[in-house]
C-alpha cells in the first residue's frame, strides 16, 4: 500500500516513456556534429607524409574517444537527474572527455604554431569551452536519506502486515478490521512525518516501539484466545490498539512531525490510503 | 565542360535568387536569430550553445594544417 503511493514518483516525466527516450536520443546529436569539426583532418591523409597520416588518424581516434566519454557521461547525468535516488558516477567521464578534447586541440595547435605556449593556451581554452558546453559530472549521491526513510516505511509496513495477518488468522472480522484501521493510522502518520522535512529521523524510534508493543499485544491476544477470558482479552486488545494509535498520533503532532493540515487534506489522505484496499475487495 | 557549365549555372541562379531577395533573406535571418536567442535565453542554454560553437570552430580551424 505504501509502495503504491511512492511508485508514482519514479515516473513523473511530462510525456511518459516516449518523451524520455526521445530526449535521450537527442543527447548525442550535438556530439555527432562536433565530430564533423575534425573533418579537415581527412585532407591530411591525402596531402601529408606517412607521419602526418598517422597523426591525423591518432587525433581522430582521440577525438572519438573523448566524444564517446562525454556521451556516456551525458547519459549518466540524464538518468541521474531523473532518478529520485541515485549514486554519483565513480568515473568523471565528462571531465575526462573534455580534457581529451583539450589535448586534441593542443596537438592540433602544436602543428600550427611554433611556440609552446600558444598550443597549451589553446588546449586550456578548449577545455574551458568544453566545460561550459557540456557541463560537469554529478558529484554527490542523491536521495540516500529519502531511500532510507522509504525503506524504514516499507519495513514498518511489512511488520504491520504480518501482525495484521496474525490477527486475521484468529477469524474475528471486526477485530481484523479494527487492526487494519490502526495500521493505516500508524502508516499515515509515518508517511506524513517522512514527507515533512527534517522529522524523518525522529519518527523511526517511536514507530519501532509502537510496532513492538502491538506485537506484544497480538501475542497476548493469541495466547488467551482459546481460554476462559477470551471476551475480556478481545476488549482489552481493541482498547489498547486504539490507545496506542491515538498516543502515537498525538506524539507525532506534538513533535511537529505532522504538519498542520486542513480537513480536506486529511480526507484526501484517508481516501488515498483506502483506495487499494477498497478496489481489491 | 557541360558539367562545369551546369554547376556554374546553378551557382549563378542561386546567387541571383538570394541577391534579388536580399531584403527578405535578411529579415528572415534576423527573425530566426532573435527567436533562437530568446528561446535559448529562456531555457538558460545560451552560454552552452555559444561555448559549443566556439569549440566547434576552434577544432575546425585548428585541423586545417
Euclidean distance between termini CA atoms of chain A = 14 Å
Structural class of chain B: mainly alpha
Percent of residues in helices of chain A: over 70%
Major sheet attributes of chain B: none
Mean pLDDT of chain A: 81
Biggest sheet of chain A, in brief? none
Average pLDDT taken over every residue of chain B: 91
- Evaluate the radius of gyration of chain B: 18 Å
- SSE order of chain B in H/E notation? HHH
Name the poorly predicted regions of chain B: none
How big a fraction of the residues of chain B is strand?
Answer: under 5%
Q: Which class do the helix and strand fractions of chain A yield?
A: mainly alpha
Number of strands of chain A: 0
Tally of helical runs of chain A: 12
Task: Give the SSE layout.
The complex is a heterodimer of chains A (281) and B (65).
Chain A: H1 2-7, H2 16-26, H3 29-36, H4 41-47, H5 50-82, H6 93-112, H7 117-134, H8 144-168, H9 173-195, H10 200-223, H11 230-254, H12 263-280
Helix pairs in contact in A: 3-5, 4-5, 5-6, 6-7, 8-9, 8-10, 9-10, 9-11, 10-11
Chain B: H1 2-20, H2 22-43, H3 46-63
Provide structural commentary.
By secondary structure, chain A is mainly α. Chain A has helices at residues 2-7, 16-26, 29-36, 41-47, 50-82, 93-112, 117-134, 144-168, 173-195, 200-223, 230-254, 263-280. The radius of gyration of chain A is 31 Å and the shape is rod-shaped. Chain A starts with a helix and ends with a helix. The relative contact order of chain A is 0.08. Chain B is built from three helices and no strands. The model of chain B has no long low-confidence stretch (mean pLDDT 91). In chain B, 91% of the residues lie in helices and 0% in strands. The longest helix of chain B is centred in the middle third of the chain and has 22 residues, at 22-43. By secondary structure, chain B is mostly helical. Classes of the chains: A mainly alpha (281), B mainly alpha (65). The A-B interface holds A 30, 33-34, 37-41, 43-44, 48, 52, 59, 63, 101, 104-105, 108-109, 111-112, 122, 125-126, 129-130, 132-135 and B 47-49, 51-52, 54-60, 62-65.
Amino acid at each position: 500500500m505504501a509502495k503504491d503511493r511512492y511508485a508514482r514518483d519514479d515516473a513523473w516525466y511530462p510525456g511518459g516513456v516516449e518523451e524520455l527516450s526521445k530526449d535521450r536520443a537527442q543527447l548525442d546529436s550535438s556530439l555527432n556534429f562536433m565530430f564533423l569539426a575534425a573533418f579537415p583532418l581527412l585532407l591530411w591523409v591525402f596531402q601529408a607524409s606517412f607521419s602526418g597520416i598517422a597523426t591525423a588518424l591518432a587525433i581522430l581516434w582521440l577525438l572519438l574517444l573523448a566524444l564517446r566519454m562525454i556521451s556516456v557521461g551525458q547519459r549518466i547525468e540524464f538518468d541521474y537527474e531523473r532518478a529520485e535516488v541515485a549514486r554519483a558516477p565513480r568515473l568523471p567521464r565528462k571531465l575526462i572527455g573534455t580534457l581529451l578534447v583539450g589535448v586534441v586541440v593542443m596537438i592540433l595547435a602544436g602543428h600550427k604554431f611554433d611556440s609552446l605556449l600558444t598550443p597549451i593556451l589553446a588546449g586550456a581554452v578548449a577545455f574551458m569551452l568544453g566545460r561550459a558546453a557540456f557541463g560537469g559530472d554529478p558529484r554527490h549521491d542523491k536521495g540516500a536519506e529519502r531511500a532510507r526513510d522509504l525503506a524504514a516505511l516499507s519495513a514498518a509496513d511489512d511488520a504491520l502486515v504480518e501482525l495484521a495477518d496474525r490477527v486475521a488468522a484468529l477469524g474475528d472480522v471486526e477485530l481484523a478490521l479494527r487492526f487494519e484501521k490502526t495500521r493505516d493510522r500508524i502508516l499515515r502518520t509515518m508517511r506524513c512525518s517522512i514527507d515533512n522535512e527534517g522529522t524523518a529521523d525522529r519518527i523511526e524510534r517511536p514507530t519501532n516501539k509502537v510496532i513492538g508493543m502491538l506485537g506484544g499485544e497480538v501475542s497476548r491476544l493469541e495466547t488467551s484466545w482459546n481460554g476462559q477470558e477470551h471476551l475480556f482479552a478481545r476488549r482489552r486488545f481493541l482498547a489498547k490498539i486504539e490507545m496506542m494509535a491515538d498516543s502515537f498520533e498525538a506524539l507525532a503532532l506534538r513533535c511537529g512531525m505532522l504538519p498542520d493540515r486542513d480537513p480536506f487534506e486529511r480526507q484526501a489522505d484517508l481516501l488515498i490510503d483506502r483506495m487499494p484496499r477498497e478496489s481489491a475487495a | 565542360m557541360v558539367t562545369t557549365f551546369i554547376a556554374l549555372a546553378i551557382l549563378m541562379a542561386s546567387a541571383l535568387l538570394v541577391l534579388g531577395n536580399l531584403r527578405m533573406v535578411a529579415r528572415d535571418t534576423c527573425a530566426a536569430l532573435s527567436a533562437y536567442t530568446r528561446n535559448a535565453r529562456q531555457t538558460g542554454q545560451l552560454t552552452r550553445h555559444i561555448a559549443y560553437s566556439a569549440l566547434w570552430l576552434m577544432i575546425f580551424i585548428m585541423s586545417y594544417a
